[in-house]
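ENTRY TYPE: protein
WANTED: fold as C-alpha cells:
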Amino acid sequence: MSEDKKLTTATGCPIFDNQNSITAGPRGPLLMQDVQLLEQMQQFNRERIPERVVHAKGSGAYGTFTVTRAIPEYTKAKFLSEVGKQTEVFLRFSTVAGERGAADAERDVRGFAVKFYTEEGNWDLVGNNTPVFFIRDPYKFANFIHTQKRHPQTNLRDANMQWDFWSLNPESLHQVTILFSDRGLPASYRHMNGYGSHTLSFVNAAGERFWCKFHFKTRQGVKNITGEESANLIGIDRESHQRDLFQAIERGEYPSWTVKVQIMTDEQAKTFKWNPFDLTKVWPHKEYPLMEIGILELNRNPVNYFAEVEQAAFSPSVFVPGIGPSPDKVLQARLMSYPDAQRYRIGTNYQQLPVNQPRCPVYHYQRDGALSTGYGGSSPNYYPNSDSSTPKEAPEYREPGLALGDVVADRYDSRDQDDYTQAGNLWRIFSEDEKNRTAKAIAGALSGARQDIQMRQLCHFFRADMDYGQRVAKALNIDIDPSFLQQNQQNNPQPVTA
C-alpha cells in the first residue's frame, strides 16, 4: 500500500487544516500569521503570465518524428541522418490574431510550431498553416499585428484598420487570398497542413549550403468548414479545436503529418525569378518538387496545460548543426524578437522548464536570473578559462560563411592581431619610478592568482617589452630561465619557466 500524501506548504511544511482561516475567535478578523492563507492568495495573484501578443490561444501535444528518407547529401543534422531514426517532438497549434479567450473556429491563420528534441539540441520550426505571410519586411510586423487586434478607442476588431493596412500593402494579397479562401477555416488542427514558411538553410558535412522549405502534409486529409458552419460551431463550442485534438489522442487516433522539403541550390537561388527569401512568395512545386523525409505523429497529451502548453516557448533562432537561417528579412528579425518575448513572458530561464529543456546534455556559461536552478554549480561562469573540466568550443561544427554580395558573413577571428606593440610603446615612455610603481601594482594584484596563471600573464608582459616582464617577475619574486630571455628577443610566444 502506498504511503498517504500529506498536504504541505510550498516549502514542505505539513498542513493540518486547509479549509479554515486563522481568526480571532469564531467570528473575528483574520490574522496575518496565517501564512498558509497568505501563500495561497499571493500565489493565486501570480498564476497568470503575460499572454503571447500573437498566437495567444493554442493547443499542444507530444509525439515523434520518424525519418523515412535520410538526406545527408543536404544536411549534417544528425536527427535526419538515417531511415527509421526517431526524435521526440512537441507541437503547438494556435490562432494568430485572437486573444486567449478567442474561439478556435474563427477565420484566422493558424500557428504550427514544432520543437524537435534532437541529440544535438532542440530545433524549433515556428511556422503557420500557410506557406506565406502578409509582409516581407519586419518593419511592418508590429503595425500589421495592431490592425488585427482591437481599435484603441472602441476596443473592437475593426475592418477599417485591417483593410486600410492590406490595401496599402499589396504584398499581403497572397496571404489575404489564402485567409479568405476555404483554407482560412480549417475544421480542426488535425485536418490542416503546416509550413515552415520561411526559407531555411541546410549545410552538409562537406560544407555545402542548400536552401530549403518545410511542408507538413496532414495524413488525415485537408478538411475545412464554411463561414456558416464556423459561426454555428463557435456558438456551441469555443474550444472546438482543443477538444478535437485532445480527445482524438485520448482515443488513440493519433494525428500525423508527412514531412516534406523543397531544396534549392545556391546557384539556383541566384537566378530564381523572385527573391527566394521573400516570405510572401512560394517556390513552385513543379520547379522544386516536394521530397518526403519523414512522418510526424502526435501521440501523447500534456498532463498540465499551463506548464506544458502555455509555458512552451518556441523561437526560430533555435537551430542544430546543419540547419540555419537565411537572408529572409522577417526571419532575421524573428531570430531576436521571439526569444526576447519568451524572456519577458516567462522569464530569463524559460529554457530550464521541462517542456523547453533539451533532451541532450547542456553546457554553457549563462548564469543566474529569476528562477535559476543553479545551473553550473561552482564551475567558472566565464570563457575562456583554464579549467580543463569546463565546456570548450567544438570547432568541428563550424559551418561555412554566407556570401552577401562582396562580403561574407562569418565569425572572423579577432585574436590574430598585434596585441603587444602599443602596450610596449606605452611602457617605454614611463619614467623609471612609474615603471616600478606599475610593476609593483601588477604584482600585488597578480600574486593572488595561481602560479600557472602568473606564468601565462608574464609571457604577455615579456612579449610587450623585456624590461616590462622582468620587473613584474622580480616584483613577484619569480626567477626566469635566462634561455627564455634570449629566445623571447625575437618576440616569439614561449612558455615561461621559473
Remarks:
- The longest helix spans residues 329-345.
